[in-house]
Specification:
This protein is mostly helical. 70% of the residues lie in helices and 1% in strands. The protein has 4 domains: 59 residues, no CATH class; 111 residues, no CATH class; 108 residues, no CATH class; 124 residues, no CATH class.
Length: 471
């Protein structure tokens, strides 16, 4: 579905009464259980759950929801609306089908006992942990201990392929949730610079057998990434363990997954940036570009990544995607500015000519966007196009503003009204390109521009009409 179709669906679902939303959720959960239209059901369920979580009219308090109580350790690792998950992530949409499977055939007796305890208000921490271990054991059986054919048939009953991909991760986190909770308490609140002392402290906290398994380690690393001001710096764990910045040696350690995770997050951010640009949303562009610039430069600086390796090709793909997304948008900005500030013949100006303030603000945001791109151009492969566009904007806006000041001296009020609107747009663009001082100077120049005095001309015409004394 396109982004506009998804937004229309969310608007429609959001307008439904809470009871209707709950009824729809139950029906789609039953459809998943029956294996009917699994992809559609999972998609609509994901939208419904995000709306219900955001609503203040939840039918069931969260503390009384058995699934939420049991799956609470998964919360830090849940993601929504992503086509692909990286190591250390779980799709939120997978929780419902796994929960249904646990009650149906995974561990039905423990499931019913836990639901009864939650409903009766007797589900203490020990009861929750008992059920989590039972669920983890049931998941381990279906993902590892059964024979190939039996395992495939059981996994097939879970529903979508994404659920099958996530179930092993769900079991791993439930099994190691105590160790993950301890790690979470040991980590600092935020690490602005992941320096050597902090790296050693984190490595000491990670030095537990239960956190070092291939299934659990990515989730432990994810907890660390959540505390980093610059998440790409997580690769420093892999570099320390390998005692080298060579990508082959880093990839040969269990902590090579840190590089995979960092590159995946940069790729996701590049896709979000492309989506925002297509929709004309530039609010977070500066932050996203800085994060991408710092991440790509950091990985290329701290790791010896070969261009022909898998990691090298992924980084090259990210840079290419960013460059392609930005280039067409950057190229369009000078044209938008010229359209607003172009001064055609006065005879072509009518009372219907207007400058839309919204259009002016959108164009000003785009000019700022070009300026931000120029700042981070070198690492994002847009150096030439951003510099050319920014220079062209500066020259054109400066010349157009000076010409507009002169055009304000006209006596034609219809033309002057339109030129004033253009002048206000030009001053707004000057503020972005040259700063508030220059914009203020141009604003004062516009105020001083008055129609040329015609008194002398009028006196001359009056003298010509007056009869001479000789007559």
């Amino acid at each position: 579905m396109s982004q506009s179709s998804i937004e229309r669906l969310r608007d429609y679902l959001g307008q439904l009464p809470p009871k209707a939303q709950a009824l729809l959720m139950r029906e789609f959960e039953r459809a998943i259980e029956r294996g009917e239209d699994v992809a559609v059901a999972n998609f609509v369920l994901e939208q419904l759950r995000s709306i219900v979580r955001a609503s203040s009219e939840d039918i069931t308090p969260r503390t009384e929801d058995p699934m939420r109580r049991a799956f609470r350790p998964l919360e830090p690792f849940l993601v929504e609306n992503v086509p692909h998950v990286r190591p250390g992530q779980i799709r939120r949409t997978s929780l419902g089908p796994v929960w249904l499977w646990l009650g149906r055939e995974g561990c039905p007796e423990a499931f019913r006992a836990f639901e009864a305890a939650v409903t009766g208000g007797a589900a203490d921490k020990a009861a929750v942990r008992t059920f989590q271990l039972a669920a983890a054991e049931a998941i381990a059986s279906v993902t590892g201990n059964l024979t190939g054919g039996e395992r495939q048939r059981t996994l097939g009953r879970l529903g979508a392929t994404s659920v099958v991909e996530d179930i092993a991760s769900i079991g791993a986190v439930l099994s190691a949730c105590d160790a993950l909770e301890q790690l979470n308490h040991k980590l600092p609140g935020q690490m602005r610079a992941f320096a050597e002392s902090q790296i050693r402290s984190v490595m000491a906290a990670l030095n537990l057998p239960s956190l070092q398994t291939p299934q659990v380690l990515p989730f432990a690393i994810s907890l660390v990434m959540h505390r980093l001001a610059a998440p790409w710096q997580i690769v420093r764990l892999g570099i320390m363990v390998a005692a080298s910045d060579d990508e082959i040696r880093v990839a040969g350690t269990p902590f090579g997954v840190t590089v995979t995770m960092a590159i995946h997050d940069l790729s996701r951010l590049a896709s979000e940036l492309r989506s925002d640009i297509k929709r004309g949303h530039f609010n977070d562009t500066s932050n996203n570009l800085k994060t991408l610039h710092d991440g790509v430069r950091g990985l290329r600086t701290e790791l010896d990544i070969r261009s022909e390796s898998a990691w090298g090709k992924q980084l090259a793909s990210i840079r290419s995607e960013i460059s392609n997304s930005l280039q067409s948008e950057i190229d369009s900005v000078p044209g938008r500015v010229r359209r607003l500030l172009r001064q055609g013949p006065d005879k072509d100006v009518t009372s219907a000519n207007r400058i839309d303030p919204v259009d002016v603000e959108e164009t000003a945001a785009l000019i700022d966007f070009v300026a931000v791109c120029r700042t981070y151009a070198s690492e994002l492969a847009i150096n030439e196009v951003s510099l050319r566009a920014y220079t062209e904007l500066q020259h054109y806006v400066e010349k157009a503003t000076e010409t507009l000041v002169e055009s304000l001296r006209t006596h034609d009020q219809r033309v002057r009204a339109y030129r004033l609107m253009q002048m206000q747009a030009a001053i707004r663009f000057c503020d972005v390109l040259f700063g508030p001082d220059y914009a203020s100077l141009m604003s004062k120049a516009a105020e001083m521009a008055r129609p040329v005095e015609r008194k002398a001309a009028e006196d001359a015409k009056s003298a010509e009409r007056k009869p001479s004394r000789a007559g």
